């Protein structure tokens, strides 16, 4: 995959720009002046759901290709299906494209070209290249043949041009019911490519269209409409996913038979993105939303762009991911750990660290004065000294993470256990002397002693300890809610992807007081835990709710 996507330097800016097989095609076309110096692409979503990470790949490819060549890229809604327009979907699509960092040249609707498409259909009929067929949908399927057998010609195939013109006109006027008649391209029922066996190009649908209202009761099929949309807009390179490869001869046929354009667009296919541990079909995602299996299209577990955004992903990380996976002709499955790697890489040097403990255990420092509080200076990001430091209160009672204490330590456990000394990050060395328990045997608190000589930053260079743990001052700690997410989909015992029943856990954690100021949408590293974002919807002045974007451990292997 990677070898198809070599990096090169932009001659003008010196910026690294990526290249791929599509760019190689464009380079050749520019050399041959196939479209002059023009490079014009489009992103054509059907507004029937929210965009997902697979669409992000297409968006990045189309918009950055246009950008690379100083060309243009349109946002075009594929609304040839007279389904009710959903403003929510339209708004979300535009928000997502902009959030990814792109701007369309023009925003257009396929339905704006219905007149032209109709005109084209009439033209094809006049040329003897299209006919009205009365077979039912099932019959058309039966007549189509198989991969190994040629199809059978429709008994309506040899209607005269006059009859076809009249019937098509009557279809348009609403004389027939849905499915009663269709218009078919007259190509070749014996073609090895089933898409060329007299495909349906217009169907009857008595439905109100959001844009054209009741003007039409016949609607063009995708394979007929798409090349015309591209050609009208002057698209040069119509990039789509691999499933359309077998449709390309039809795409070319439509443009050739109409003959209206001297340099018609060309379709180029690339492999769609498939990601492990999630699901990428709008229909499936819509079902999750409709069933209430998730909290909406922007649920942080969803692979939608809205979900990734709310989860805490950045546009930079998503773009980086799309770049790294490259553009290829071969379908493959990308491991979701690569996406996680990209967000870690992006946040590593951008966000500040905070101390947060989960499953807290109380620590009492028995030799520390009761009424004393010290302010410990802790760096905000140890990779980026310029990000400065903050003062964190430290006193006699602290919270430590449940993970950082073992009463009976396993092998190679260097954190807190009875008799062991560890460094409390940014503070002192503490030794655990006693485990105090409740009546039911659960841990109430750990009694520790600190060594005043070991204060961090005091120039102490004495004995080494093997473990360093973080802590939160009990007196000033705030309670926060953490939403810990794991994969949306996991394989069941048969190996089939099913929704993960444990895809979200809510837990209460204790945090240093600075987190009380966290604004919705603000991201942090929770020291030794992972990257988190204050949830945009649920975080209030009083209650801080953090989504876990990703943990710190990377399972991504190059
Ligand atoms: P879905 O199958 O999820 O409903 P779709 O392909 O029907 O998606 P469209 O709105 O028609 O959704 O897609 C808009 C554009 O995004 C198309 O050009 C399509 O090829 C592209 N696209 C959709 N899914 C992917 C994917 N997984 N990887 C790359 N491109 C994709
Ligand atoms: Mg589609």
Kindly describe this structure.
The protein contains 12 helices and 32 strands. The chain has 558 residues and is an alpha/beta fold. The chain has 3 domains: 233 residues, HUPs (Rossmann fold, 3-Layer(aba) Sandwich), CATH 3.40.50; 121 residues, Ribosomal Protein L25, Chain P, CATH 2.40.240; 74 residues, Beta Barrel (Ribosomal Protein L25, Chain P), CATH 2.40.240. It has a 7-stranded mixed sheet with strand order 15-30-31-32-26-29-16, covered by helices on one side. A 7-stranded mixed sheet has the order 24-21-22-23-17-20-25, with no helix packed on it. It has a 4-stranded antiparallel sheet with strand order 7-8-9-10. A hairpin with a 5-residue loop joins strand 22 and strand 23. The protein starts with 6 loop residues before the first strand and ends in a 7-residue tail after the last strand. The N terminus is likely disordered. The structure holds adenosine-5'-triphosphate and magnesium ion. The site of adenosine-5'-triphosphate has 15 residues, from helix 2 and strand 11.
Task: Summarize the model shown.
This protein has 558 residues and is an alpha/beta fold.
CATH class of the largest domain: Alpha Beta
Into how many domains do the coordinates divide?
3
Number of strands: 32
Q: Looking at this structure, what is the CATH superfamily of the largest domain?
A: HUPs
Mean of pLDDT: 94
């Amino acid at each position: 995959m990677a070898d198809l996507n070599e990096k090169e330097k932009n001659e003008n800016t010196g910026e690294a720009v990526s290249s791929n097989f599509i760019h190689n095609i464009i380079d050749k076309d520019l050399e041959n002046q196939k479209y002059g110096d023009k490079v014009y692409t489009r992103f054509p979503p059907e507004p029937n759901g929210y965009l997902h990470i697979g669409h992000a790949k297409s968006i990045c490819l189309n918009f950055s290709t246009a950008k690379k060549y100083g060309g243009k890229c349109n946002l075009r809604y594929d609304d040839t299906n007279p389904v009710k327009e959903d403003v929510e979907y339209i708004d979300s699509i535009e928000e997502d494209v902009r959030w990814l960092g792109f701007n369309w040249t023009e925003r257009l609707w396929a339905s704006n070209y219905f007149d032209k498409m109709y005109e084209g259909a009439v033209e094809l009929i006049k040329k003897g290249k299209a006919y009205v067929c009365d077979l039912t949908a099932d019959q058309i399927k039966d007549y189509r043949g198989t991969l190994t057998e040629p199809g059978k010609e429709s008994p309506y195939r040899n209607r005269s041009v006059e009859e076809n013109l009249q019937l098509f006109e009557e279809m348009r006027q609403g004389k027939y019911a849905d499915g009663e008649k269709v218009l078919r391209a007259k190509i070749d029922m014996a073609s090895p490519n089933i898409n060329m066996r007299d495909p349906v190009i217009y169907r009857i649908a008595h439905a109100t269209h959001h844009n054209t209202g009741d003007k039409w009761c016949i609607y063009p099929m995708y394979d007929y409409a798409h090349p015309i949309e591209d050609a009208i807009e002057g698209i040069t390179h119509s990039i789509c996913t691999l499933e359309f490869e077998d449709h390309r001869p039809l795409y070319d046929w439509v443009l050739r038979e109409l003959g209206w354009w001297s340099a018609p667009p060309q379709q180029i296919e690339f492999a769609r993105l498939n990601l492990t541990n999630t699901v990428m079909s709008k229909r499936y995602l819509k079902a999750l939303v409709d069933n209430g299996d998730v909290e909406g299209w922007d649920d942080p577990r969803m692979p939608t762009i809205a979900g990734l955004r709310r989860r805490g992903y950045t546009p930079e990380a998503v773009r980086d991911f799309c770049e790294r996976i490259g553009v290829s002709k071969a379908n493959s499955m990308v491991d979701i750990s690569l996406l996680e790697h990209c967000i870690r890489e992006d946040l590593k040097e951008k966000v500040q660290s905070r101390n947060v403990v989960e499953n807290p255990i109380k620590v009492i420092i028995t030799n520390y004065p009761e009424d004393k509080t010290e302010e410990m200076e802790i760096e905000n990001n140890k990779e980026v000294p310029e990000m400065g430091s903050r003062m964190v209160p430290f006193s006699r009672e602290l919270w430590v993470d449940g993970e950082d204490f073992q009463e009976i330590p396993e092998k190679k456990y260097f954190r807190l256990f009875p008799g062991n000394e560890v460094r409390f990050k940014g503070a002192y060395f503490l030794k655990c002397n006693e485990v105090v328990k409740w009546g039911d045997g659960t841990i109430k608190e750990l009694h520790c002693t600190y060594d005043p000589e070991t204060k961090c930053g005091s120039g102490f260079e004495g004995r080494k300890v093997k473990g360093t743990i973080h802590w939160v001052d009990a007196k000033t700690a705030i309670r926060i809610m953490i939403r810990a997410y794991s994969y949306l989909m996991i394989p069941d015992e048969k190996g089939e992807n099913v929704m993960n029943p444990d895809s979200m856990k809510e837990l209460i954690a204790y945090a240093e007081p600075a987190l009380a100021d966290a604004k919705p949408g603000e991201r942090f590293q929770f020291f030794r835990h992972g990257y988190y974002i204050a949830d945009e919807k649920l975080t209030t002045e009083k209650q801080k709710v953090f989504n876990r974007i990703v943990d710190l451990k990377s399972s991504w292997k190059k």
